[in-house]
C-alpha cells in the first residue's frame, strides 16, 4: 500500500519530543524506509474481505493486471490466485524486499506470473498495457494533487481498451474530527506494542503520523513518520472525471463487523465501456 519517494522523513513535533528524550538511541525514518521495515511488517494487518472485493471485479476483466503501490503484497498474492499475470509496481526498496520475500514462499507456478518493478505510481512508463490497474486503500492519500493527476494520466496510458481502474479511497473526508491530536497503542504480531500519534494540520488538509515503540527503553528507538493528505471518494470521483474517466461502481469495502470506511471505485476511460 505504498509508493513514496525516497526522501528525508517528515519532522513532526511529536517525533522531535521523542528523539530528544531518548538521545543517541533514537532513529528517525519514514514509515516506508528500510529502518522501519520490521515495524511495518509487525503492525500490518491484512483482511481477506478487501482482497475478495478486488478479485471479484478483476475477474470481470481480461488480460494482465497492474498493481500500483504494491507494498508488501497484500493484494498481489490473492490476485495471483486468479491465474493472471501480475505486474507489481512499488517505489520503496524496503517494501519491495518484503514483497520479494513473500513471493519466495508461494508456489513457483504463482511466483513465475509476477513481475516486480520499482517505480513511482504517479509517473511510470511500462512497455505493455493491462486489462486492470489496481491500487489498495490508503495509497492515494500519500499523493499530492499534482501526483494524483500524474497517476490518472499514467493509468490511462496503460489500460487496454475495455480495461478497468480499481482504486480504494476513504469513504468520507476525515479532515474534521473531534480532536486535533490523538494517541493510541497498537499491537504488533510479534507481541510488541507501539504508540501511534496523529496530529491534524487543517490548513494543509493533512495529517502527520508518528509511530514509536511503547517500550521507552527500546534500543534502537525507531521513530517512524508519515504525512497523509485528506482526500475522499467524492473528491477522487471528481478528479477521475476531470482526467477522462467514468466511475462505473462505488463499492463499500466492508469490515468483518459490518462497518466500512473505505470505498472501492471502479472506473474506465470515458467512452470506453
Summarize this, please?
The protein is an alpha/beta fold. Helices cover 27% and strands 33% of the residues.
Walkthrough of the structure:
By secondary structure, this protein is α/β, with parallel strands linked by helices. The protein has two domains: 13-31 and 174-229, no CATH class; 48-172 and 231-269, Vaccinia Virus protein VP39 (Rossmann fold). It is built from eight helices and twelve strands. The strands form two sheets. Strands 4-3-2-5-6-12-11 form a seven-stranded mixed β-sheet, with helices on both faces. A five-stranded mixed β-sheet has the order 1-10-9-8-7. A hairpin with a 4-residue loop joins strand 8 (193-201) and strand 9. The protein starts with 12 loop residues before the first helix and ends with a strand. The relative contact order is 0.18.
Fill in the keyword field for this structure:
273 residues; alpha/beta; Rossmann fold; 2 domains; 7-stranded mixed sheet; 5-stranded mixed sheet; 8 helices; 12 strands; globular; disordered N terminus
